[in-house]
Write a structure and sequence with these properties.
- The chain contains 5 helices and 3 strands, in the order ββααααβα.
- By secondary structure, it is α/β, with parallel strands linked by helices.
- The longest helix is centred in the C-terminal third of the chain and has 16 residues, at 80-95.
Length: 125
């Protein structure tokens, strides 16, 4: 039997919730500006999965470059707390739909694209 594919969606937190979102996981370290917690409809907020404040500031500064950001963020995800949170999310995504929520204007060049790759099925699993 082939490995189950995780069902992972990425959405901006400012979009209204959808019935097919499944488990809604906020993957930003900071609470989204202008959004009331009662309106967010999040199920999980694993801060251990979010880029460090230092990395986030570097990326949004004059030196920040996406490929290097990805490399540094992947290194952060290898830390014990982040790795445990990522494993938990990977297991959840193998069982049910998971929607990663972010305030990033362009999620394709943010940490959410790295998380999406990390949650993809691995060869041999």
């Amino acid at each position: 039997m082939p490995p189950s594919n995780p069902h992972v969606h990425v959405r901006r937190i400012y979009e209204p919730p959808s019935p097919d979102d499944g488990v809604r996981v906020l993957v930003d370290r900071l609470w989204p500006r202008g959004l009331a917690k009662t309106d967010a409809h999040i199920d999980e907020w694993p801060k251990a999965l979010t880029p460090s404040t230092e990395l986030r500031r570097w990326y949004h500064g004059p030196e920040g470059e996406y490929a290097e950001f990805c490399r540094r963020y992947e290194a952060e995800l290898a830390a014990p707390d982040a790795a445990a949170a990522l494993d938990r999310l990977r297991e959840m995504a193998a069982r049910e739909t998971v929607t990663l929520l972010t305030a990033a204007k362009d999620p394709s060049v943010s940490h959410t694209s790295v998380l999406e790759r990390e949650l993809a099925p691995r060869a041999g699993e």
